[in-house]
């Protein structure tokens, strides 16, 4: 998948989240935003998000750290998870990728080594450009 296709997926996903968070009453929190829950059509357009209704869960690396400490699920948690999904689309790395050293997570890696000066050099997977 090329970079433009990846960016289009990110735009489609944020459109779905915007609908869930702002057009539904009450707002719907997805709580498990990750690439495997993004449903794509044959043209690589994201139209919806898969989830298990009524099951509270989350996937390590995608859920906000504060959920580990008992914070209530919120739309802001979905925004955090969406950010991780976008980083994964750009880097082609998992959020807890084994290639990261010293138990570093992808978000911290990006923040420490690339943002904002070296995004294209360090973050964007060159095979997608």
Give an account of the 3D structure:
There is one protein chain. This protein is mainly alpha-helical. It has a single domain (3-50, 59-128), classed as Orthogonal Bundle (Transferase(Phosphotransferase), domain 1). Helices cover 39% and strands 5% of the residues. The chain is built from 4 helices and 2 strands, in the order αββααα. It has helices at residues 3-22, 75-91, 106-113, 119-123, and strands at residues 38-40, 46-49. It has a two-stranded antiparallel sheet with strand order 1-2. The radius of gyration is 15 Å and the shape is globular. InterPro entries: Kinase-like_dom_sf, LRR_receptor-like_kinase, Prot_kinase_dom, Ser/Thr_kinase_AS. Residues 1-129 form the Protein kinase domain. This is Probable LRR receptor-like serine/threonine-protein kinase At3g47570. It holds the Pfam family Pkinase. One of its GO terms (molecular function) is protein kinase activity.
Summed up:
The protein is 39% helix and 5% strand.
What class, by secondary structure content?
A: mainly alpha
**Overall pLDDT metric:** 80
Query: CATH H-level name... which superfamily?
Result: Transferase(Phosphotransferase) domain 1
Shape: globular
Task: Classify the beta-strand content into a percent band.
Answer: 5-15%
Specify Rg, calculated over alpha carbons: 15 Å
| Biggest sheet layout | 2 strands, antiparallel
Helix content: 25-40%
According to CATH, the fold-level topology is Transferase(Phosphotransferase), domain 1
CATH architecture identity: Orthogonal Bundle
- CATH class category: Mainly Alpha
Organism: Dioscorea cayennensis subsp. rotundata
Pfam families: Pkinase
Domain Protein kinase: 1-129
InterPro entries: Kinase-like_dom_sf, LRR_receptor-like_kinase, Prot_kinase_dom, Ser/Thr_kinase_AS
């Amino acid at each position: 998948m090329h970079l433009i296709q990846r960016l289009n997926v990110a735009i489609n996903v944020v459109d779905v989240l915007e609908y869930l968070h702002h057009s539904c009453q009450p707002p719907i929190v997805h709580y498990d935003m990750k690439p495997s829950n993004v449903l794509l059509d044959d043209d690589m357009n994201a139209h919806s998000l898969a989830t298990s209704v009524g099951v509270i869960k989350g996937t390590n690396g995608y859920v906000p750290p504060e959920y580990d400490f008992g914070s209530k699920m919120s739309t802001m948690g979905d925004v955090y998870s969406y950010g991780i999904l976008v980083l994964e689309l750009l880097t082609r790395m998992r959020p807890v990728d084994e290639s990261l050293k010293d138990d570093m997570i992808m978000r911290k890696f990006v923040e420490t080594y690339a943002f904002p000066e070296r995004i294209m050099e360090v973050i964007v997977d060159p095979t997608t450009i």
